[in-house]
Design brief:
The complex is a heterodimer. By secondary structure, chain A is mainly beta. Helix content of chain A is 0%, strand content 50%. Chain A contains no helices and 11 strands. In chain A, strands 2, 4, 5, 6, 9, 10 and 11 form a 7-stranded mixed beta sheet that branches. Chain A has a 4-stranded antiparallel beta sheet with strand order 1-3-8-7, with no helix packed on it. Chain A is globular and about 35 Å long. In chain B, strand 5 and strand 6 (59-61) form a beta hairpin. The chains are: A mainly beta, B mainly beta. The interface between A and B is medium-sized, with 22 and 19 residues.
Chain lengths: 107, 120
């Protein structure tokens, strides 16, 4: 299985901050990477697929980049509703695997 | 608007079989454009892809669970189901059903999730 890691595991930020989360794959996955947002007691929500393509309805302050083994999720200006845990997921090969998550909380 | 809703027992005894159903509304499970999947999340932990099914009955199972998992589909009821046999406490988790576009292994619509506890 491809192992996914994320850094940091948690971060504290203020409304308006630019936030960057990193995801790394244990082997190359081209651009087959997705990002999800999960709020407490809620199901994950799909944000980005193919490393940089925004799902319909996702605000443009979210962006993704990267290819191969290193990827980033950037929130350009953090909003109150963005405080959540973010997961990356590779789908280059079976089984699809998720990163351990990055929790973004209020500073 | 597409909605997915999990249902089933919230408590299962060790060694027994966990059974859950996902009812899809606002869309057809028989669409050729989508697969339908199950994912789980142990309390306080990360996400694990269990498996997925196409309306035709074609399935994929995570090898880590393959010997214990069965996913089936009932197109007449617009439902798909999960069975996980020989459960232990390690199978305690929130179980989600979700939709997966045929073109990519990404889950774009999720149910709200249901907590299943394995305990005697």
């Amino acid at each position: 299985d491809i192992q996914m890691t994320q850094s940091p595991s948690s971060l504290s930020a203020s409304v308006g901050d630019r936030v960057t989360i990193t995801c790394r794959a244990s082997q190359g996955i081209s651009s087959w990477l997705a990002w999800y947002q999960q709020k407490p007691e809620k199901a994950p929500k799909s944000l980005i697929y193919a490393a940089s393509s925004l799902q319909s309805g996702v605000p443009s302050r979210f962006s993704g980049s990267g290819s191969g083994t290193d990827f980033t999720l950037t929130i350009s200006s953090l909003q109150p509703e963005d405080f959540a845990t973010y997961y990356c997921q590779q789908y280059n090969s079976y089984p699809p695997t998720f990163g351990p998550g990055t929790k973004v909380d209020i500073k | 608007q597409l909605q997915l809703q999990e249902s089933g027992p919230g408590l299962v005894k060790p060694s027994e079989t966990l059974s859950l159903t996902c009812t899809v509304s606002g869309g057809s499970i028989s669409s050729s454009s989508y697969y339908w999947g199950w994912i789980r999340q142990p309390p306080g932990k990360g996400l694990e892809w269990i498996g997925s099914i196409y309306y035709s009955g074609s399935t994929y199972y995570n090898p880590s669970l393959k010997s214990r998992v069965t996913i089936s589909v009932d197109t007449s009821k617009n439902q798909f189901s999960l069975k996980l046999s020989s459960v232990t406490a390690a199978d305690t988790a929130v179980y989600y059903c979700a939709r997966r576009p045929q073109s990519r292994l990404v889950l774009d619509y999720w149910g709200q999730g249901t907590l299943v506890t394995v305990s005697s």
